[in-house]
Amino acid sequence: GLSYVYYLVRNGEYQRFKRIAESGKDLSFFIGGQSLLAVAAQYGQVLIMNYLLDKKAAFMSSQFRLIDAVV
Fold first, then answer.
1. pLDDT in tens, the chain (71 residues)
2. What are the residue ranges of helices labelled H in the chain?
3. CA–CA separation, 42 and 26 (whole Å)
4. Distance (Å, rounded) from C-alpha 14 to C-alpha 8?
């Protein structure tokens, strides 16, 4: 479910996350007002951030801007 994907992103489980993403699961949902890209940025998960950016994922956060997360 969504909480499992959130767990993978938050904890940097890149290979597991990538398998789910490539299985066709829709990853454009928001968790607590944040996109998966925002969650990855917040927790410093660079591999997942790069994967999502390569897939043109949207960044959306009600808590911070992308530049705040990477600085």
1. 568 999 999 999 999 999 999 998 888 877 878 889 889 988 999 999 999 999 888 776 666 555 555 54
2. 2-10, 14-22, 36-42, 46-54, 66-70
3. 21
4. 7
**Cα(7)–Cα(12) distance, integer angstroms:** 8
Cα separation of 47 and 40, whole Å?
9
Q: Which residues pair with 34 in a beta bridge?
A: 31, 61
Q: Which two tokens stand for residue 52?
A: 């999502």
d(CA 4, CA 66) in angstroms, rounded, equals 23
CA–CA separation, 4 and 31 (whole Å): 11
Say which amino acid occupies 8.
L
